[in-house]
Amino acid sequence: MSGQTTPRRTVLKGAALAGAAGLGVAACSTESKLGHAQTPTPTAPVALGDASAVPVGGSKLYREQRVVVSCPAKGQYKAFSAQCTHAGCVLDKVEANEGNCPCHGSRFDTTTGQALNGPATAPLPAVPVKVENGKLIAGPDA
């Protein structure tokens, strides 16, 4: 009888490990639903600083405020949440108008919010932005 117990235990351990591995894959799925993001956009107006800090034709990441702002033309600004729509990590850098998520490698067009490279497939949510006395303000009522 002891010959049957070892294979059975081995099978049960294997099943438990496979189940745990499956949970890990599910937690990092390719679905883009702001998985762990709690507040993907500011819930109150946020001062970002001088509007001139965002170059015309370029983008600037405001990591602490979780916002990325682009300037398609002089005096025009667009803003998006800087939280990845895959798992909610905050973008860590912007290069050539592409925002990078350090967690799983997703990349976003910071001028449109569109996902360029997965696992994220959903775009970054738009954030209202305005210029007031030369300063950028993002969030509701902006």
Summarize the structure.
The protein is α+β, with helices and mostly antiparallel strands. It has 1 helix and 11 strands.
Any overview of this molecule?
By secondary structure, this protein is an alpha+beta fold. 18% of the residues lie in helices and 31% in strands. The protein is built from 1 helix and 11 strands. Strands 2-3-4-9 form a 4-stranded antiparallel beta sheet, with no helix packed on it. Strands 5-6-7-8 form a 4-stranded antiparallel beta sheet, with no helix packed on it. The radius of gyration is 21 Å and the shape is globular.
Radius of gyration, rounded? Answer: 21 Å
- Strand numbers in spatial order across the main sheet: 2-3-4-9
SSE order, one letter for each helix or strand = HEEEEEEEEEEE
Overall body shape: globular
- H/I helix tally: 1
Structural class: alpha+beta
What's the β-strand tally? 11
**Oligomeric state:** single chain
Distance between the termini: 74 Å
Q: Percentage of helical residues?
A: 10-25%
Strand content: 25-35%
Q: Tell me the major beta sheet.
A: 4 strands, antiparallel
Mean of pLDDT: 81
Runs in which pLDDT lies below 50 for 5 or more consecutive residues are 14-37
Question: Topology of this structure?
Answer:
Blueprint (H helix, E strand, L loop, with lengths): L1 H26 L18 E5 L8 E4 L4 E7 L2 E6 L11 E3 L2 E3 L6 E3 L5 E3 L8 E2 L1 E4 L2 E4 L4
Antiparallel strand pairs: 1-11, 2-3, 3-4, 4-9, 5-6, 6-7, 7-8, 10-11
Which descriptors apply to this entry?
142 residues, alpha+beta, four-stranded antiparallel beta sheet, 1 helix
